[in-house]
C-alpha cells in the first residue's frame, strides 16, 4: 500500500477483511482474527484516524479506498490560512530604513509589512535591506517607503485560502512569507491580518506527521 505510516501485519489483515466483507462490525473482525475487541481497538483507531477505514455507528467499518497519503493531502487542503497565520510585523511607510532594520532583528522576522493609513502599501525583506545598506544610502534619513515592493506587485493570501495554496505561492515566487489580507472595499485597499511563512508551513507538516 502507498502509505506514509508503516502498517503492521495485523492492520493489513484488518484492511483486507473490511474490503471483502464491508460493512463489517468490530466484533466480526475480531472473530475472524480470533482476537478480542479490546485487542483490536488501537488498530481500528489508527486505521480510522488515518482515513483508510470509515466507521459508521450501528453499521460497521468500510474501506474508504484512501491511502494515508491521500488522507494527509486532503487534510492539508482543508486547513485554512486563517487557522495557522501568525502575527505580522507592521510599520508605517514613513519610518526610516534604519528603524525598520532594528525592528526586524528585534522581532526576528524575514519580512516587514508596510502600511499607509492602515492599509497594505508594501513589503520589505532582509534582502531589500541588505541591498540598500551596501548601496551606501543614509539609512537614518531614507524612509522605508523608498525601497519597498509596492502593491500590486505583492504576493498575498486571504484567510479562506488553503495552506496548500499558500505553500505553492511561497515556492513559485521564491519568497519567505506572505501577508494574509482582507479587502477593505470602502477604503479601496487591503488590511493586513497576519502572515504565513515557510516556517509556519514546516511546523504544520511536523505537527501532522507527529499526529500520524
Q: Which of globular, elongated, flat, extended, rod-shaped describes the shape?
A: elongated
Strands side by side in the biggest sheet: 3-4-5-6
Summed over residues and divided by their number, the pLDDT gives a mean of 85
Low-confidence stretches: none
Structure summary:
This protein has 212 residues and is an alpha+beta fold.
Note down, in words, how this protein is organized.
The protein is of the alpha+beta class. It has nine helices and eight strands. It has helices at about 10-20, 25-35, 35-50, 70-80, 80-85, 95-105, 125-135, 165-170, 200-210; strands at about 55, 60-65, 90, 110-115, 120-125, 150, 175-185, 190-195. Helix 2 crosses helix 3.
Summarize the topology.
Layout: H1 9-21, H2 26-33, H3 37-49, E1 53-56, E2 60-63, H4 68-78, H5 81-84, E3 90-92, H6 97-107, E4 111-116, E5 119-125, H7 126-134, E6 149-150, H8 163-172, E7 177-184, E8 189-197, H9 198-211
Parallel strand pairs: 3-4
Antiparallel strand pairs: 1-2, 4-5, 5-6, 7-8
Helix pairs in contact: 2-3
List keywords for this structure.
212 residues; alpha+beta; four-stranded mixed beta sheet; two-stranded antiparallel ribbon; 9 helices
Amino acid at each position: 500500500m502507498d502509505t506514509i505510516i508503516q502498517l503492521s501485519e495485523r492492520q493489513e489483515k484488518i484492511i483486507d477483511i473490511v474490503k471483502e466483507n464491508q460493512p463489517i462490525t468490530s466484533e466480526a473482525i475480531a472473530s475472524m482474527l480470533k482476537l478480542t475487541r479490546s485487542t483490536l481497538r488501537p488498530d481500528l483507531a489508527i486505521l480510522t484516524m488515518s482515513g483508510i477505514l470509515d466507521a459508521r455507528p450501528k453499521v460497521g467499518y468500510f474501506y474508504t479506498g484512501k491511502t494515508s497519503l491521500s488522507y494527509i493531502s486532503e487534510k492539508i487542503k482543508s486547513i485554512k490560512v486563517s487557522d495557522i497565520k501568525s502575527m505580522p510585523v507592521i510599520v508605517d511607510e514613513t519610518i526610516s530604513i534604519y528603524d525598520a532594520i532594528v525592528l526586524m532583528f528585534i522581532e526576528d522576522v524575514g519580512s516587514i509589512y508596510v502600511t499607509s493609513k492602515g492599509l497594505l502599501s508594501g513589503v520589505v525583506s532582509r534582502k531589500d535591506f541588505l541591498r540598500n545598506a551596501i548601496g551606501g544610502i543614509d539609512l537614518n534619513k531614507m524612509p522605508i517607503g523608498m525601497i519597498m515592493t509596492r502593491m500590486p506587485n505583492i504576493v498575498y493570501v486571504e484567510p479562506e485560502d488553503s495552506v496548500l495554496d499558500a505553500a505553492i505561492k511561497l515556492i513559485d515566487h521564491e519568497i519567505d512569507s506572505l501577508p494574509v489580507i482582507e479587502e477593505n472595499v470602502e477604503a479601496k485597499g487591503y488590511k493586513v491580518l497576519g502572515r504565513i511563512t515557510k516556517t509556519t508551513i514546516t511546523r504544520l507538516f511536523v505537527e501532522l506527521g507527529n499526529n500520524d
